[in-house]
C-alpha cells in the first residue's frame, strides 16, 4: 500500500468518526444510554476481531496489555456515557468539543514528564483552548458553572475521558513496540459493559420492533470499528503530520454532522468556542514542532 492510499484511509477514519456522536445520540433516544453503548461496542468488538484478530500475546508485554487495556476500557466508558447521558442533544455535541482538549492535555503531560519544553506559544495555546470551552458553555444568564451543576456527570466523564485518552496515547506510543491491540480493547470494553448492564438493568431488554432502530446501531458499530482500522493504517503508513493537523478539525465536522442528523441548532457562542478550541490546540501542536518545521521529512 502506497503512502497516498494510507493517508486517504486515515482521512476516511476521521470522516467515519465524525458521525459517531450524532448516531450515538439517535440510538440513545430509542434504546437508552446503557443499551446503546453496550450494543455498539459489542458489535464493534465482533467486527474488529474478525477483521484484525487478536495481538500476538507471546510477543507482547503482559504489563503493557494490562495497563493499556485498563486505560482504553475506562476511557471508552467515560466518553460514550458522557455523550449518551447528556441532558439534551446540544449538550451531547458540546461534550464532544470538550473532549477535543485531549491534544492540549498531551502537551501538558509531556511538559510535566519533561519530554517537551513549554514556551510562551504553548502556554498561549493552552489558554486559548480552555477559553474556548468557557465560551461554548456561556449562554445569557447561564455560565460554565451553572451548566456543570445542571449535568455534572456528563462533564466529569468527558473531562476524565480527555485525560485518560491523552495518557493512553502517551503510554502506548512509548511502550507498545508496534503492537496494535485495539480488537482486544474492544472485546474487554464490551464485556465490562455487559456486566454493567446486567447489574443495573437485569435481563429487561428494551422492546424495539422497527428494524430501522437497529440499523442505527449497526451503522454506528461499523463506522466505529472501521474508523479504528483505517486510522491505524493511516498513522503507520500514511502522512502522519497531515493526519494530525486534520484531526484537530474533526470535532467541527462532527458537530456539523450532528446538527444535521439530530435537527438541532447551536448558538453562535458554541461555534465561536469550537473554533477557539481548535485554534488553541493547533497553536500547542505548532509550538512543539517549530524546531522541526524546516526539516524536509516533515514537510506536508
From TrEMBL:
<feature type="transmembrane region" description="Helical">
    <location>
        <begin position="211"/>
        <end position="231"/>
    </location>
</feature>
<feature type="transmembrane region" description="Helical">
    <location>
        <begin position="182"/>
        <end position="199"/>
    </location>
</feature>
<feature type="transmembrane region" description="Helical">
    <location>
        <begin position="152"/>
        <end position="170"/>
    </location>
</feature>
<keyword id="KW-1003">Cell membrane</keyword>
<keyword id="KW-0812">Transmembrane</keyword>
<dbReference type="InterPro" id="IPR050638">
    <property type="entry name" value="AA-Vitamin_Transporters"/>
</dbReference>
<feature type="transmembrane region" description="Helical">
    <location>
        <begin position="243"/>
        <end position="264"/>
    </location>
</feature>
<dbReference type="Pfam" id="PF00892">
    <property type="entry name" value="EamA"/>
</dbReference>
<dbReference type="InterPro" id="IPR000620">
    <property type="entry name" value="EamA_dom"/>
</dbReference>
<keyword id="KW-1133">Transmembrane helix</keyword>
<dbReference type="GO" id="GO:0005886">
    <property type="term" value="C:plasma membrane"/>
</dbReference>
<keyword id="KW-0472">Membrane</keyword>
<feature type="transmembrane region" description="Helical">
    <location>
        <begin position="64"/>
        <end position="83"/>
    </location>
</feature>
<feature type="transmembrane region" description="Helical">
    <location>
        <begin position="30"/>
        <end position="52"/>
    </location>
</feature>
<protein>
    <recommendedName>
        <fullName>EamA domain-containing protein</fullName>
    </recommendedName>
</protein>
<feature type="transmembrane region" description="Helical">
    <location>
        <begin position="5"/>
        <end position="24"/>
    </location>
</feature>
<feature type="domain" description="EamA">
    <location>
        <begin position="8"/>
        <end position="137"/>
    </location>
</feature>
<feature type="transmembrane region" description="Helical">
    <location>
        <begin position="270"/>
        <end position="288"/>
    </location>
</feature>
<feature type="transmembrane region" description="Helical">
    <location>
        <begin position="95"/>
        <end position="113"/>
    </location>
</feature>
<feature type="domain" description="EamA">
    <location>
        <begin position="154"/>
        <end position="283"/>
    </location>
</feature>
<feature type="transmembrane region" description="Helical">
    <location>
        <begin position="120"/>
        <end position="140"/>
    </location>
</feature>
<dbReference type="InterPro" id="IPR037185">
    <property type="entry name" value="EmrE-like"/>
</dbReference>
